[in-house]
Amino acid sequence: MRFRPVTFDRLVEEVAERVATLAPQDAPWPRVAIDGAPPAEPQTLADALVAPLRVRGRPVLRVRAEDFLRPASLRFEHGRTDPDAYYDDWLDTGGLLREVLEPLDPGGTGRVLPSLWNPVTDRATRAEYVTMPPGGVVIVDGALLLGRWLPFDLTVHLQQSPAALARRTADADRWRLPAYQRYDTDVEPVTAADLVVRVEDPRRPAVLE
């Protein structure tokens, strides 16, 4: 694989341009996934896309996958540090589909819920629904988003080598490393994503050509 080094600012502009050029008939409300383990800092890229897309005349709504986790009773059914449960059971894909992604299908209502569940309080967030204007973009960031049949219009995977991922993962989260290894094997996000960015150091990205 050949990677092209870019500055972070240049990466943001390239991704924003790809989003802005999505065909309206195929993506009336573009749904963008920024996929990456926490050490890859997917939220940083997702947040940075807001301003350049708005400059291009696109309203933007940010959604965090961690606001669509299942209740603790389901997430921790097999313990708090089970990597298979983290992989299979933590994300409420049904809620994310129902409240965010499916309403933005062609012919959908455009009415989305920015957050569903607070994993800290283990209660519903009671967020208000938002009606996206035509051409509005929803950007979802999180880990393990690909391979779940979620209807994103553009997917960006932030890739790290196992060594870099292990080095940058906090001690308290190292139990998740087998889940990321399984993800690489089962989903192959490097081939599944529309755009792959190597982030051995998130400050020095490189785009897969």
From TrEMBL:
InterPro entries: P-loop_NTPase. It comes from the Bacteria. Keywords: Kinase, Transferase. GO terms for molecular function: kinase activity. The keyword Transferase applies. This is Uridine kinase. It comes from Hamadaea flava.
